[in-house]
Design a protein that fits this description.
Helix content is 54%, strand content 12%. The protein is α/β, with parallel strands linked by helices.
Length: 157
């Protein structure tokens, strides 16, 4: 079952005509008929009574109309949310790092740029205790620390 088949079902239920529904969804009448037939085959029952001047929904078709409308409404919410995300602007990732780890920065910048071409990366060199405070205050999203056996505060952040 495909979402477009549900959409075709809804339009056909409104139009009650394969030719009018096909025009509305911009496909040929035989293609629409095949898609509805495939949906009915998958469901195991007919959605429409055929044969009269206009199509009529079967009892099963009438029962499936409300959940199909709910599904279409959910898809509209999904489309709107996707558009909001697409247009909200670049993401910002703030990373603090110790001087000893700056050899990693070019690789991090390259990977971030490839994965998030519209994103913005803010980097700041900080001392170990500053990194911890910055993370706790949510001033940075990540910290890169250099651990050595000599350091007393080798906590995992």
């Amino acid at each position: 079952m495909e979402l477009r088949q549900i959409r075709y079902f809804l339009v056909l239920a409104e139009e009650r005509s394969f030719s009018r529904a096909a025009k509305r969804v911009y496909i040929s009448q035989p293609s629409l008929s095949r898609q509805i037939g495939a949906l009915e085959s998958e469901l195991g029952f007919s959605l429409f009574l055929r044969g009269g001047k206009e199509l009529e929904l079967t009892g099963a078709g009438k029962e499936l109309l409300p959940p199909a409308k709910d599904l279409e409404s959910s898809m509209e919410v999904f489309r709107n949310e996707a558009e909001r995300i697409r247009t909200k602007g670049p993401e910002i990732l703030r990373i603090g790092y110790e001087k000893e780890t700056e050899f990693l920065i070019p690789r991090i910048v390259r990977a971030f740029s490839e994965r998030f071409p519209e994103g913005h990366l803010e980097l700041s060199i900080q001392k170990s205790d500053e990194l911890t405070r910055s993370l706790c205050r949510r001033e940075i999203s990540a910290a890169i620390r250099y651990f050595t056996p000599e350091k007393e505060d080798n906590a995992v952040l």
